[in-house]
Amino acid sequence: MKTDAVKRALELRKTLRKDDKVLVVDFSNTLQGKDTTKVIDLMPNVATGEYLFRAKFNIKNIDPKAALEYKVPFKDVRNMPEKEIEDFVKRQEFDFPLWFKHNEGFEMKKITDYNTPFIVQVAGCNFHDGTETGGCWYCFVDNISNNGKPGAGKAWLGVDELVDSMQAARAKINDFYRNNYDYNLDIKVLRISGGEPTIVLDYALDVWRQIAKRGLDLVGQIDSNLSTGSVVRRFEKEGIYKRHILEKLAEHPVKVLTAIKGTDPISLQDNVQSNPSMKEQLYSIKRFVNAGFDIYPQMYNPNPLTLWNYLEKMDRHIENFALRVHIGPLKIYGPTTQRLTHEANRLGIAPETLIAQKKQEWDDNYKNGCDVINSYLQEYYGVGYKNRVRPKVPLKILKS
User: Fold this and answer.
1) Which domains occur in the chain, in start order?
2) How does pLDDT run across 247-266, given as a tens digit for each residue?
3) Is the peptide bond before 135 cis (omega within 30 degrees of 0)?
């Protein structure tokens, strides 16, 4: 039986918040932590020493250390024309650093400051049922990190602890780059990921109010699986959230990664092993746009056979929506391998067989999906896929 995404979100609210703290992932002994520490080590809560923060390089080529470690050509943006930087970044696997193009203080030649977010993960996802094979098949988060249960692999994190820890990490990383690479790297982006951060929006708002109070030069990203628009509305009605919480958070320099997990009801529910609806996905997207957020739709494992119709429908609801969509490639990380191995054992088949099948399916859907969206944009907009810089594309709600 598929997990009820709304019911599960309501359950997780009871375990993810305690007083003024939120339950987050301790990466110390996780497969995800091992996957993401090749270049930058995990970072501690300065108050407790627990390793609650990680970082990632969205674009490896433009970072001197990442380029060396991953053996890719280093592009020193300090010596590149701004147009060349923008054209290169917009076509990468992740264009995230460009999301902040219109933010005050952004400089194209300092785009590396926006390339390596400081990441904290809420320790519960409402697509996840708490089992070793729960949640999205391709999720790169360890199962225990998404089950929402306090205990081993989790920690409670206060607002001041988060901000203090980020400030300490920024200073340490900047010193390292200056001393070892003669390069100034000043991390600007705080990313609240998960899990599902919209279940603890009040915590996220408190964090950004604290950042504003301190006058820190930071910008933010928050992720959403687009299944909780109605949950946020219910929390507002019940007084768990204050009214207009999304609008209040949108007053801060925070972008939203809106994760589209399916292009039709079957692909959506198969991908996430839960029962969210396309209607809820659309409603959740509109809630973010209406609140004033600059959203960035990231699509995962689309069904190429239904993608065209999905884009047509979304463009009827939100002007220019298709120009904002990027498709994310899926990779077999440690937690993915573990999850698929458990499933293969349950089915009585060789794990390597199931893993190979899923990898082929995901690779095919990515390639074919990119072809579909490119053809769609050529026909409706006269441009190819990734030929536009997403922050330059205005969105407008057309239908309620």
Assistant:
1) 5-397 (3.20.20.70)
2) 999 999 999 999 999 999 99
3) no
